[in-house]
Design goal:
The complex is a heterodimer of chains A (877) and B (374). Chain A is flat. In chain A, 25% of the residues are buried. Among the domains of chain A are: 247 residues, P-loop containing nucleotide triphosphate hydrolases (Rossmann fold); 167 residues, Helix Hairpins (Orthogonal Bundle), CATH 1.10.287; 100 residues, no CATH class. By secondary structure, chain A is of the alpha+beta class. Chain B is an alpha/beta fold and 374 residues long. A six-stranded mixed β-sheet of chain B has the order 4-3-2-1-12-13, covered by helices on one side. In chain B, strands 5-6-9-11-10 form a five-stranded mixed β-sheet, with no helix packed on it. The longest helix of chain B has 24 residues. The chains are: A alpha+beta (877), B alpha/beta (374). Chains A and B meet through α7, α8, α16 and α17 of A and α2, α3, α8 and α9 of B. Chain A: Keywords: Coiled coil. Chain A: This is AAA family ATPase. Chain A: It holds the Pfam family AAA_15. Chain B: Pfam families: Metallophos.
Chain lengths: 877, 374
Amino acid sequence: MHLRRIEISNFRKIQHVVIDDLRDGLNVISGDNEAGKSTILAALRAALFERHRVGGEAAAAMLPYNQSVRPEILVDFDLDGHPWKLRKAFCQKAEVELIGPGERHTGDPAEERLAQLFGFTPPGRGASKPQDHQGIYGLLWVEQGASHRALGVGAGRESLASALESEVGQVIGGERGRALLAAAEARRNVYWDRRDTPKPKGDYKARIEEVEELKARKEDVETRLSTYDEKIALLSKKRDILARHERDASLESAVASLSKAQQTITRTKKLETAVSEAAEKRKRFETEERATSDRLDAREKLIKQVESARTALNKAATEADEAKSAFARLETVDKAANDQLVQARAARLQNDRRVTSIEQAINHRRAEDILARLEQQLTTVESADAKRREALATADSLPLDQKQLAKLEQAVDECNRLKARIDAASVQIVFHPIGNQKISIEGTARDPSVPLLLADDSILELEGFGRLTIHPGGGVTELVQSLQDAQHVLQRALQQAGLASVSEAKAEFQRKLDALAEAELQKKLIAASAPKGLEALRQEVETQRVLTRRLATHNLSPTDATDEMLELARQEQNIAAKVEATSEDNASRNRANRETASQDVAVKAERVAAATQDLNLKVGELNAAREKMSDEEMRAAFEAAQIALRAAISLESEAALALDEADPEAAILTLQRAKLAEESIRLDIDKTSREVRDLEVELKALGRDGLGEQLAEIEGELSLKQRQAETKKAEADGARLLYETLSKAQKESKDRWLGPVRERVAPYLKLIQPDSDIVLNEETLEIEKFVRKGVDEPFEGLSIGAREQAAVITRLALADILRGSGQPSVVILDDALVNTDEQRLDRMHLVLHKAASALQILILTCRERDFLQLGAPIRRI
Amino acid sequence: MAFRFLHTADWQIGKPFANIAGDSGAELRSQRIKTVESIAQIANERAVDAILVAGDAFDSNEVSDRTIVRTIEALAPFSGSWIFLPGNHDAALAHSVWTRMHAMGLPSNIVIADKPEPIDRWNGRATVLPAPLRRRRESLDQTEWFDQAPSSDGSCRIGLAHGSVANRLPGNADSSNEIPEDRAERAGLCYLALGDWHGALKIAPRTWYSGAPEPDRHKANDAGSIFIVDIDRPRAPERVETLNVGRYYWIRIDIELIDGTCERALQALEGLSNEYRTCVVFLNLTGAISLAERRRLELELKKWEARVHHLEIDDSGLIDEPTPDDLDALDNTGFVRLAVERLRLRASDPGDPESSAARMALRMMYLDHFAKGA
């Protein structure tokens, strides 16, 4: 098919446009933005695919903005070399007219014929949508801005598929093939999971596991069974052991051996007893022999002791005599020394008395001096004390004290003060008689030269004048009363003190003070002479007096009682003391010698006594012993004991020889062995019997489970399950192989099915991107991926430019195929390469050129410049 | 003096048949005890003097107590002497099913012949000489003592043993516990009652295997019977009557499919007796089969599985051989064809490790195809 002429009136923004002389191959239609180039494509779609009577939004969309006109489109095209004319008007007086070679259609028949010619299915109602209703033109005519999107095969798929099938023949298995594949896949999925290396699943897996489990169980039961068998073998062995014991009568023979050994032992025991009895006898005789021998020794010893006691007595007596004569000599010497000591001691005593006497005389003289002085002091002090007492007595006789005097003076002061106040308050009347008229007051005359002070109401009789009544001012009366009270107090105080007046009181108080001062003075005098007091002084005098009196008992004259004399006497005294000490030493030494000698005498005498006693004792003892048994008898007894002992020794050695011959050690060993043998055999029998019983019990318990039955059952089940598992495996393998084979075959067939597309695409791709391939989805025929140098890239992952180039190339290839199968295929691209760079665009121009050798291609563009070099006629609108 | 006894062996009670799943297996298990009960009843009816059980009454020494108790109960209908000989499955070990039975307290008519000692319970009419196995495999001939065994004058000497008679048994029969073929003769036996071989068989003069009363394996021998034996007097020839007591028939069918169809297999199954309900069938299929026929075979076998007591099929030797028709039945266009072709190639290549998987795949595809088509 080729479009030849398009005329559009009142369609959207186009008032009227004619595009004619459209050529085979490339045609460029250029228009600025808003010029309406895209509207041309819309108009073309409307003319071909919208029914002329379409209303609603589809119709409204055709109208220019805000106008109510009649959109009309005329299209001239060639189909299979024949010219066709289509005219369609919408909205108002909608009509359609299709004129072809030898045919003309209007109205619905025209629409039907149109659908038939272009292979599309108009919508039941409403607008025609490119992908749903416009057959291959949804694919081949590309709207502006949609070129990089998916192809939008849509309703064109059937046409494409039939075109492909017509080219490659029927390579796919059709519906039935797909069903077989689906069934194979479903079956494979029953047996295998979907991993890359599939693993058994479901029933198949369960079977395999069942077999494994049974194997494990079998092994377990086999193990248990073999244990069971081992136990049975053990039981049999144990029973054999018991049977052997029984057969050999091993226990009985061991018992017999034991009893024989015990008899042997009894015999040896008797021999042993004999030996020990002989030994005892021998010991008894030994003891006896020793006893007689000892007794004999004792007798001889006793005789010797008597002799030596006698010798000792003689020696002691000699020594005692010597000691007595030594003592007598020393006694004489001692007496002489004692006499000498008595004389020396008397001389020394005389000297002592002389010294003492001189010392006393000197002391006496000194004591007298002190006494005289003390007596003088005492006299002085006693006189002072008498004076002091007198003064104190005087003071005591004057009772007035300071307080009383003060009270009197205070009372006088009060009277005086009151009198002054009365004087001040009284009326002073001064008489100035002319003559010497008399003045009397209340009958009492008054010396008129003396001013009168009146304190109370008074009536003056003035001679010559008469009576004058005077009333003194306020308060005088009270003052007068107070004065009277004060005077009364004073008087009473004086009376109490026994005094006539206050001045007398003062003089008396002064006397008292003087007496006290005298007393104090005397007291100080006493204190100076007798600091410890008078009484102490008196005591001292008395004491001194007694002392002096006591020292007066000497008869020396004061001339003899000098210090020089005393010194002389002391020297003499020292000499006498030394003589005495020497005599004392001498005397005491002699006394000690005498004492020692005396003791020695006593000791020696004691020894003589002791030796005598000892001798007597020993002699007595010996005599007593001899009375019991004479020395000869004793000797005979000893000899007899010796003979008896020799006989016992010989008997003992005979018994020992007999025992030695009986070999007791061997007998004991034999008994031990027999005992052990008997015991071990008995133990073995007991132990084995017990083990047999235990094994029997154990086996009984084990046997209850029926292990053999279990094993046979498991083995049977295992063989059954193994067969089943093998069957399953065969099925699983078959299912897997079937699916693999079918799907591989299908894939290969699909490769062949898309082969023509690849063939068509390849030369175009070679122009822009060598070593690349476009892979379509077998089902949808949409672009699935782009392969560059063997690397797959999903279509959606490509850049916009690459996508629009791939899509344009694929559309061209598909258009080729459609054309080849005789379908009307014109390609319209509305600014389909706006995202392609200059270099690629140049290559794409080559692609378009190449495609245009077989296809009519309309290029709508707003970029005229891009296509100037394309070498195609450019029409501007 | 005549002596009549019932000779049986190889009950193998306690055999689990676990490879036969579900109720079928359980019924086989319980039937073994029921069969013992019917033996006891027959013995009672036929008034035998004794029942000699020549070994392997139990499947193993390790059967459960429950099994033992139930077996003892099943013996009740016959109150005469039961002589049990320990066999290789239930050898008289130190601890065995027999010691366990003793421990449970046995009625006095039940005798465990676990010692090589003469048994005379019939007032001198007969002396039973047992040769018990005291281990699973005896290295020495246990019947040797029979030759010198004492017996009262005029009593029938009857040997009781378990094992294989030397040089006599067919095929690769177990050659352990060997019994000399002339033992009966040498020991002056009227009858040597044997166990171990599961088919009924006279193996040597006066020497008999009674076989298992209830078959338990797919072995082509004459199992499922017992003997009633009459010895009229010492040295008189034995009179042996065979009675069938087995309930289940164990049948093995080997079929090779040679024409690509399953016809022969189906015919063989049709040939089963009317008592197919008591058949335990083992069907061994070999040969080759088309996919269409495989599908048909599977449908038919499903029916047979329901009919017989148990049907075990071994078709591991049966190869799928898709015919051109089979493959044409699948779509002959598109990738399916490609897949079929590839699978077919692999299936027919014996060197391909996945050839059997490929066959299975083809079969599956074929079945899917019909499932979809149906």
